[in-house]
Amino acid sequence: MGNTENTLIPPGTVVVGIDGSPSSDRALDWAIDQAVRERRQLTLAHGIDPAGVAWTDPMGGSHRAVVDAMADDGRRLLADARAYVEIRQPDLGVNQTAWMADPRVTLLKLAEKASVLVVGSRGRGPVASLLLGSVGLAVVRHATCPVVVVRPGNPGRVRNGVVVGVDGGPSSRATVEFAYRQASLRQLPLTILHGIEEVWPPNATDDDLRISVTEPLTGLAEKYPDVTTRLELVREDAAGALVEQSRRMDLVVLGAHHGGRLSTLLTGSVALSVVEHAECPVAIVS
């Protein structure tokens, strides 16, 4: 594994995966806006996997020549992306890095020091036809920083803010605080969607459930007084409710390691249902 750019990436940047696909272009736009809002630098990242080239061109081209061509292509993609950033936000600090490594390895390594990792929902490689490509799936499951998967949506549709899915446990706090911050940065309202577990007593009232959700979140409303919030209780199919809400939201936020019902989000079909079918960007907070 090597870094063909030999660029020292400072910690805390917004990292975005670049592969030249339309999905990657959408991710770049989102990452630019996020870096500007957060007043952070932007890092453009591209992975070149030489192990994925296991053939020799029938016209006589060597493996080395193919890898070199891939590296040239990667450098061109990064140069084009950087030029685009400079047009959109000329004062934004930009880093770029191309690694001779599987793109999944590249992004997961960069995620260790990133503030957030942004990827498109589909790539341009052999897995481009999948709803969520192998790179997106890997970083959603394993990244150590928040991951935003930028979904294609309807840009003309009126949006209603940020929605966050919680289970009421103590680990929900980091997820909800991320959602609060994103809502505050964008001056948007926040919907806290609580998926109710079957273990709740059948005679529990909505007030009991609301208290269970809000107790671990004490202080967040005071920390972000500019954010208007509402709590919504969902007794069935929390993932379906989030997908439905995404049709009118700017961002869906989910936690990666909760202990309740939503804890299955990243290990089973529920996660893919939200990340693959949402009609707005989806943030996964580890």
UniProtKB/TrEMBL annotation:
Pfam families: Usp (PF00582). It comes from the Bacteria. Residues 13-151, 162-285 form the UspA domain. Gene3D superfamilies: HUPs. Belongs to the universal stress protein A family. PANTHER family: STRESS RESPONSE PROTEIN NHAX, UNIVERSAL STRESS PROTEIN UP12. This is Nucleotide-binding universal stress UspA family protein. It comes from Nocardioides soli. The lineage of its organism: Bacteria, Bacillati, Actinomycetota, Actinomycetes, Propionibacteriales.
